[in-house]
Amino acid sequence: MAKRYGQACPVAKSLELVGERWTLLIVRDLLDGPRRFQDFHASLPGIAPALLSERLKLMEENGLCARRFYSEHPPRAEYVLTDKGRELGFVIGALATWGSRHVHPSAALVSDDCGHEVHLRYFCPECSKRVRGSTVTVRSRARAKKAQLAKRPR
Prior knowledge:
Blueprint: H1 10-18, H2 23-30, E1 35-36, H3 37-43, H4 49-61, E2 65-71, E3 76-81, H5 83-86, H6 89-102, E4 122-124, E5 129-131, H7 141-151
């Protein structure tokens, strides 16, 4: 059963969906492409089969991944991220960046194209510019719209 925080906050609501142990590591592995159940045992040592099955089922129910059968007799399936699940790639990237900076400095998030370390940044597509993280807050869409209108020149 997923932890419920009882908060009307996108961070809390997101954690209710993906904050259980192993879930984001399963997403990390699926970002590389389809995986079979047994593939997870190689990349996620220590996860019990029943727990892996439970996590995959919840992820499927919540639209993060889909199960595709590649054999009917016996039934065998592989798992693939949905578009909704692939969007978590940014979250995985942000965690990887933070982790390489603070808890696992021997690793880095790098571009496959050039091999250089990459950085995640906030960007406002409406203003076409980067935004400092210290100026970013979580607000309701209605409140954000009000603040946007109040800042417009009259």
